[in-house]
Amino acid sequence: MVKKVMIIFNPSSGKSQSKKIAQQVQDYLEEQDSAYQVKQMGTKSETDATKFAKEAAENKFDLVVSIGGDGTISDVVSGLSPFEHRPKLGIIPAGTVNNLARVLQIPLDIPAAIENLVTGDLTPLDVGQVNDSYMISTLTLGVLADAALEVSQQEKQKFGPFAFVFKGSKILVQHKHYHLKIQHDEGKWRGSAQLLLVTMTNSAGGFPYLDPDAAVDDGYFHVFIVPELSFSGSLRFLPYFISGKAKKIPDVTYFKTKKLTIEGAKKEIRSRIDGDPSEKLPLNMQVLEGHIQVLAPYLNKRSQC
Fold first, then answer.
1. CA-angle at 37, arms to 33 and 39, nearest 5°
2. Residues 86, 117, 119, 275: what is their CA dihedral angle, to the nearest 10 degrees?
3. Residue 77: in which H helix or E strand, if any?
4. What Rg, from alpha-carbon coordinates, does the chain have?
5. Beta strand pairing status for 88-93 and 276-280?
6. At 4, which helix (H) or strand (E)?
7. Fewer C-beta neighbours within 10 Å, C or N terminus of the chain?
8. pLDDT value at residue 258
C-alpha cells in the first residue's frame, strides 16, 4: 500500500481541468488510507514541477502523481532523476496530446487512470540525460522545434498534434536548415539537416508508430535526420511523418544509439525537449536505462510498449 504521495498538477494543461482532477485523486487516496501532499504549479513558472519532485525525492515519498501533459511529466522526471531514491511515478493524462500516457496504455479516462495508481504494475522507463536536462520522449531540432514555437495553447487544444503539422508546413517553405556534426555509438554524421528528431518511444507528438521498433525500456535513442529538402521534397515528407513511416522518408538517416553528441555551426541553436525549449548546442546525451518506475497497466509487461 502506498503511504506517502505527492500530487503535482499543472493548471494550464489541456483544458485546464487539472485542479478538479487533483481533487478526485485526493478523494481516491483517502479511500486507500494514503497520506498525500498537493502541489499546484504556478502558471508562470515552468520549474515548479521539477522543484516539487525534488522535494518528494529528498523526503523519500513513495509516489509522485503527475497531472498534466507530457511537459509536466518531463518536468517531474527532471526533478526525480538526479536522486538515488526516486519515487514511483503515476500519470494522470490531462494534457492536449498525452503522448507518453498513450504509449504506456495508461487510460485517458480520468477515473480509470486514477484507479491505475493502485492497480497498475511497475514498468521501467528509460530517461535521456541531455547535458544537465532530462527527456522522456522526444528531442527536436529544426522544423518541428521551430513549429512548436509558433503553436499556441489554444491551437494545441483545438487541433492536437496536427497543429504542429500546419505550422511545420509553413516553415518548410522557408528551407531553414542546420549544419550539424553528430557522434553516435557506430560512427559520425556530418551535414545539413532540415529536421533532427530523437525519440525514446514508438510515438512522437501524438503520431503513433513513428518507429515500431522503439520501446520505453529498450535502452536506446532512436535518431532521425532529415536532410535539406526542396519545396516539393518537403511536401512529400509530411505524409510519411503523419502516417508513421518516418524511416521511409527519402534520404532520411536513421540509427539507434545509447550515447549521442550533437554540435552545430551556430551555438545559439536551441533544442526542444518533450515540447518545451531546452538546452542549446552542443548536446551530450546518454540513456539512463530503466531509470524511473511508472505505474501502468500490466499488459505493458508483455507488449513492452
1. 145
2. -80
3. helix 70-80
4. 19
5. unpaired
6. strand 4-9
7. N
8. 98
Q: What share of the chain is helix, strand, coil (3-state, %, to 5)?
A: 30, 35, 35
Coil, strand or helix at 236 = helix
SS3 label, residue 30: helix
Q: 164-186 pLDDT, tens per residue? A: 555 455 545 455 778 999 999 99
In this predicted model, what pLDDT tens digit does every residue of 64-116 receive, in sequence order?
A: 999 999 989 999 999 999 999 999 999 999 988 899 999 999 999 999 999 99
Reported as a pLDDT band with limits 50, 70 and 90, residue 5 is very high
Q: What distance, in Å, lies between the first and last C-alpha atoms of the chain?
A: 26
Is-contact 138 200, C-beta < 8 A?
A: yes
Q: What is the pLDDT of residue 299?
A: 58
- Cell output for 161: 498534434
In a 10 Å sphere around its CB, with 0-12 CB exposed, 13-18 middle and 19+ buried, how is residue 232 labelled? exposed
The model's pTM:
0.86
Residue type, position 266, single letter: K
